[in-house]
Specification:
This protein is α+β, with helices and mostly antiparallel strands. It has one domain. It is built from three helices and five strands, in the order αββαβββα. The strands form two sheets. A three-stranded antiparallel beta sheet has the order 1-2-4, with helices on one face. A hairpin with a 3-residue loop joins β1 and β2 (41-44). The longest helix is centred in the C-terminal third of the chain and has 30 residues, at 79-108.
């Protein structure tokens, strides 16, 4: 487990360094301080605004769970959408486990005796 944490931390630092390097390679007038490392990992080093914070972390109208992080490297979690998805998964699990319990309890009942003529 420690190796996985170390790997994730190393990858995060590498993405951070790559984002800085990517911006510093641009001419000063072309630097936006936001974009994607290798076209995949988003980064944004601009000062966060309330609108961008809300769009990234609290946007119930959007169906995406992950959005670009408001400041730094990586992704943000859209909390209401993530909560809704987790709730759906828990509900599906509860429904399927209840159905399974009903089937098992029915199979534990002794077989019915045939009616005698």
């Amino acid at each position: 487990m420690k190796e996985l944490v170390r790997l994730i931390r190393t990858l995060a630092w590498m993405a951070f360094a790559a984002a800085i390097y990517q911006e510093l390679r641009k001419p000063p007038e072309a630097r936006t301080w936001n974009g994607k490392v290798a076209g995949v990992v988003p980064y944004d080093f601009r000062l966060p605004t309330l609108d961008r914070l809300k769009a990234a972390y609290w946007n119930p109208d959007d169906e995406q769970i992950f959005s670009d992080r408001v400041f730094g490297v990586g992704w943000a979690v859209n909390i209401p959408v993530a909560a809704r998805k987790v709730s759906e998964i828990v509900s599906q699990y509860a429904d399927s486990s209840a159905a399974l319990r009903r089937r098992v309890s029915r199979s534990d009942e002794p077989p019915a005796l045939p009616d005698e003529p």
